[in-house]
Amino acid sequence: MKQTSVELRDVRKSYGSLQVVHGIDLAIDEGEFVVFVGPSGCGKSTLLRMIAGLEDVTSGEIVIKGRDVTDLDPSERGIAMVFQSYALYPHMSVRDNLGFGLKMANTDAAEIARRVGHASGVLKIDHLLDRRPGQLSGGQRQRVAIGRAIVREPDVFLFDEPLSNLDAELRVSMRIEIAKLHRKLANTMIYVTHDQTEAMTLADKIVVLRDGRIEQTGTPREVYENPANVFVAGFIGSPR
Ligand code: ADP
Ligand code: MG
């Protein structure tokens, strides 16, 4: 039996009187690649940020590997998040960008070097370690941003529209890279996108959201072939 990796129990979020996430219940298996997909403003980022601990839940519980993490800091949750904006430090080498978070957490130098070596091997960026972000292409920068998550050796990777700043061609090749990364690392990954193609090609399980509610959960095939309603059919079915 597969272990549950991440569990959301009746998770809700309001900003003032505006409720943007309505009672989400979801169980994600260990090693599963889950994609939250839905139109802009449906609450994808809010949900991911609550899992990450970057945003408080208004009510409900978030459980990671059997541990209630609802009130824990992001650094205590065993997660690492990859953002759409790379947020690399421009004055630091790629090597130092990769190691910076670990250094701040007082990880010793040999361990940092080991993890940076592992991450750069996995992402094939060894040859870029002495460069600065300004000397990298968009795709290379995105690899470094993913590398910063890998060095933390998290249980769960969280991605918030990591490819939406890239041009169409690069988006396709990075999508393939991310799929390979999942096969290599075998971690649980939760990936947010408004792009149906990304969702269909990356996901073991798709969660279709609308207005802060789950419309349907299933494999890409299930959702495509048996959409739960007209919204899902229109959203997954219509090419962009
Ligand atoms: P998505 O990532 O799916 O585009 P978001 O999670 O960013 O959607 O936003 C969901 C809803 O919550 C939107 O209506 C958005 O305007 C609102 N929202 C997000 N962050 C805040 C905030 N800090 N304060 C008020 N409203 C917010
Ligand atoms: Mg968003």
Automatic annotation (TrEMBL):
Domain of life: Bacteria
Subcellular location(s) of the protein: Cell inner membrane
Taxonomic placement: Bacteria, Pseudomonadati, Pseudomonadota, Alphaproteobacteria, Hyphomicrobiales
UniProt keyword terms in alphabetical order: ATP-binding, Cell inner membrane, Cell membrane, Membrane, Nucleotide-binding, Plasmid, Transport
One GO molecular-function entry: ATP hydrolysis activity
Membrane topology: Peripheral membrane protein
Protein name: sn-glycerol-3-phosphate ABC transporter ATP-binding protein UgpC
Biological source species: Rhizobium grahamii
Family, per entry: Belongs to the ABC transporter superfamily.
Domain ABC transporter: 6-236
GO cellular component, one term: ATP-binding cassette (ABC) transporter complex, substrate-binding subunit-containing
Phosphoprotein is among the record's keywords: no
